[in-house]
Amino acid sequence: MNLPTNLPAATESRKADHLRICIEQDVQCQSVTNGLERYRFTHTCLPELNRGDIDLTTTFLGKKLGAPLLISSMTGGTEQAGIINRRLAEVAQHYKIAMGVGSQRVAVEKPQVADTFAVRSLAPDIPLFANLGAVQLNYEYGLEQCLRVVDILEADALILHLNPLQECIQPRGDVNFCGLLDKIENLCVKLPVPAIAKEVGNGISGEMAQKLINAGIAAIDVAGAGGTSWAKVESERAETAMQRRLGLTFADWGIPTAECIINVRQAAPNIPLIASGGLRHGLEVAKAIALGADLAGLAMPFLRAAAESESTLHALAEVLIAEITTVLFCTGNANLQQLKQSQTLQRVA
């Protein structure tokens, strides 16, 4: 594989920029929300349950989890990112929740940073998801590179992230998305682990989800609009006035997360489905599950907690689990399957 000699340094620098900007700057969507505020649970004043008996366990891609939570893909490739990933892995293992890592392209181009992603020793029992940009299949990546990132993580699945808007705005972005569906299909046939299609904050429609599933994708992460805006993140890194303007113009572009969940679930009733995109607390997690998701992914809350301290990260996991449990208790549902079937979530706006 022939890569420009300056590419590894550029990729590593970009990773450091992304981490710094997400931790320090306000890069959230402003005029668009995740859509979950339009839904409200019907309160049950007499739940006929013991709160201590509520069961949050679930399975995803054949793996049992203690709660329907995913630490969404965030980072890797720098010293600080390695510290954050190790903290996240320890917490994921402790609470038996799933974890994804950030794009591992930098580890392919610069193998000496691979250990910033390699957290399996800290999280032996949970689902770990490797990660590469699907568009790299048009830039000399193939099965070999995908297997490499899966091996680095000893991953249970490979996330192929889809980020056309981000690539449009990113300096020297990879914008050739032609023929990718066929390449994804060819890859899925050969991969020894399931492939998960994930947007990065602009959403996946029901129609697009069906095309991806037909191509062999085993799970969908909608990653809808309403949370971190990667257009806005890239506008903070802009090298030209045009890039900065594009990032600001499209800062609120995308399909709200709630809409994505409903549309993908209608199109594909049985596909393993992850809801992410602007989820910030356990009440929103429970809403996403009630709308049809199997897992709920959070990135920014976990990132900022992990950057602060291990104790802050544990406190966040504890409160998320307590919030989800409280929803089930106050809607009279003993487990997640009952919550999905209960019809206690109603649209109010």
Automatic annotation (TrEMBL):
UniProt-listed InterPro entries: Aldolase_TIM, FMN-dep_DH, IPdP_isomerase
Primary location: cytoplasm
Enzyme superclass (EC): isomerase
Binding site for Mg(2+): 167
Any GO CC annotation of this UniProt entry: cytoplasm
Domain FMN-dependent dehydrogenase: 182-342
Reactions catalysed: isopentenyl diphosphate = dimethylallyl diphosphate
Cofactor: NADPH; Mg(2+); FMN
Family per record: Belongs to the IPP isomerase type 2 family.
NCBIfam families registered for this protein in UniProt: IPP_isom_2
Functional summary from the UniProt entry: Involved in the biosynthesis of isoprenoids. Catalyzes the 1,3-allylic rearrangement of the homoallylic substrate isopentenyl (IPP) to its allylic isomer, dimethylallyl diphosphate (DMAPP).
Name of the protein: Isopentenyl-diphosphate delta-isomerase
Gene name, Swiss-Prot/TrEMBL: fni
